Amino acid sequence: MELQRKMDIIFEKLSILSTEITLRGGFNMLDINVISENFFAELLNIIFGYKLTNLNFAEQNAKSIDLIDTANKLIVQVSSDNSKKKVQTSLSGIDNSKYSGYHFLFVSIAKGVSHLRTEKFVSLSGISFDPDTDCYDIKLLIKHIEAKGSDCIQNVSDYLCKTVVYTEKKDIRPEAITYVIKQLADIDLAELDNMQWTIPFDIQDR
Hints:
This protein is of the alpha/beta class and 206 residues long. It contains nine helices and five strands; from the N terminus they run ααβαββααβαβααα. The chain has a five-stranded mixed beta sheet with strand order 1-2-3-4-5, sandwiched between helices. It is globular, with a radius of gyration of 28 Å.
């Protein structure tokens, strides 16, 4: 039961994140994509035991690569664009003289990647990439988390609870109905008898 509760948290948090990324992308609010690079670096590290870091910290706007693990020779593109063109553009833009011998992973942070697995891609010499096994989306990551077992589930759940936090902004002003009721409750009913409810007027004056 506890593991199921943790998995429910994982489903909820990643679903919320994916939905927000998709909606923001529709309005060209892409600031969350930059934040997502760091988020997914740590998430992948927890799931697979990688040592990924954000390459953009060392090389600002590094072309085609967002994350790097020099120990395991991994380079990763994190994107909300799941098109074949995006993957091929990323592959073609890698500096193979610098990253020869590296393995390329593509992580779609908002949409699915199942359609990419049957596509044909051209990798530069020295860069390995298999679309059938090297493309990830939220659904596939959840499957890997579940397959890894209790320790991974616990660690991912804890991480998501710390990083994917949404707070409700409550309006401190009373709602209209509540306000009216409160005002009526403050009226001295005895005073109502002394109030003049109609205002006489002469029709001719109108």
